[in-house]
Amino acid sequence: MWEQIYEKIDALYNRMVEDRRYLHQHPELSFEEKETSKYICNRYDELEIPYQKNIGGYGVIAKIVGGKPGKTVALRADFDALPIQEENDVPYKSKVDGVMHACGHDGHTASLLAVAEAVLPFKDELEGTMVFLHQPAEEYAPGGAKPMIEDGALEGVDAVFGTHLWATTPVHTIETTNGAFMAGADRFEITFKGKGGHGAMPHQTKDPVVMTGQAIVELQQVVSRRLDPLQSAVLTIGVIEAGEAFNVIPDTARLQGTVRYLDKNVQDQIIDEMHKVLKGISESYDAEYELDYVKGYPPVINHPAETEYYLNEGKDIPGVNQVNEVPPVMGGEDFAYYLEERPGTFFFTGAKIEGHDYPHHHPKFDINEEALPIAAKALVHGYKKYQES
Ligand SMILES: [Zn+2]
Ligand SMILES: [Zn+2]
């Protein structure tokens, strides 16, 4: 049966490309994916597969209940796009100004729909229940995974698998790792509240620009001097805002940035150390600070047994000839929430277009469509292995 399902997925190649290109031309931003959700529902209507819609927002959950007893395994695909103007000159270019599928979620959706269509004819022979989680709003915290889970998406589910098409990894390659695979991703905003005044009379002010300068340097030392060198973290400041005139000291100054980490204890420690640094600086200037720290997605922590299905047996998937165990990626993913609740794993399916090598979220990002059936088969592989376990 599995061989036939894999063959059926290959036979659905044109269908996948069609779905992917339609979605690529009609991208919708996170939390606004009404039409995308409708498109997915229409496809399940055509296939006559039962589904529920509006789960945790625009989420859609379809199910194929197999004719034989077994475990319930969920396969997930996200479907939101990004606020980016597409710069690719392709027939399937985005038709929406300033919005683009620049992360490949159009491809994830097409692959998962193909899995449903390929498995359906084998329903009676299938062991267990296959659950299709079509998730909105991955790109923007608090994301779509959490509300879907709160709405019952994992009820009765034993394990969950997900993949990301990865545009910088060659086709026919799968990449993953055991344990922390993607980082926790937080954002913060710091405001120094000083006292403004004349640029020539600094002694009458509490200069927040100077405090900001100190903070930028000292915050770098949270990672380099306070964390255990064997722990990984990033603290990046991406925005500095202060002042409007060259000879005026402003009242306030603002910094914004992001923290990435792989271990929750590290996250706690970083927040703690940031407060110490900011308190020290502001006190020494007789000023005040505010730290608005927003916790984003937790790290993606892959479970060992399910990850081994790919690391050890990934080459059994037709179309996969290379499996790489890779170091964690410091990007974030709300797939993390599923793995906090259930066993499972997340992996990359290589989707690089040779000679057109742009990273995710780039205006020229594109995926190699040959990867679509491989991603579909790789998800089926997770289901199959989990049933056998
Ligand atoms: Zn993305
Ligand atoms: Zn993505």
Automatic annotation (TrEMBL):
Positions annotated to bind Mn(2+): 103, 105, 139, 164, 361
GO molecular function: hydrolase activity; metal ion binding
Keywords assigned by UniProt, alphabetized: Hydrolase, Manganese, Metal-binding
Family matches, as InterPro entries: Amidohydrolase (IPR017439), Bact_exopeptidase_dim_dom (IPR036264), Peptidase_M20 (IPR002933), Peptidase_M20_dimer (IPR011650)
Cofactor binding: number and manner: The Mn(2+) ion enhances activity.
Taxonomy, superkingdom: Bacteria
Cofactor entry: Mn(2+)
Gene3D superfamilies: 3.30.70.360, Zn peptidases (3.40.630.10)
Residue ranges of every copy of the Peptidase M20 dimerisation domain listed in the record: 184-283
Family recorded in the similarity comment: Belongs to the peptidase M20 family.
Protein name as it appears in the record: Amidohydrolase
Origin species: Piscibacillus halophilus
The organism's taxonomic lineage, starting at the top: Bacteria, Bacillati, Bacillota, Bacilli, Bacillales
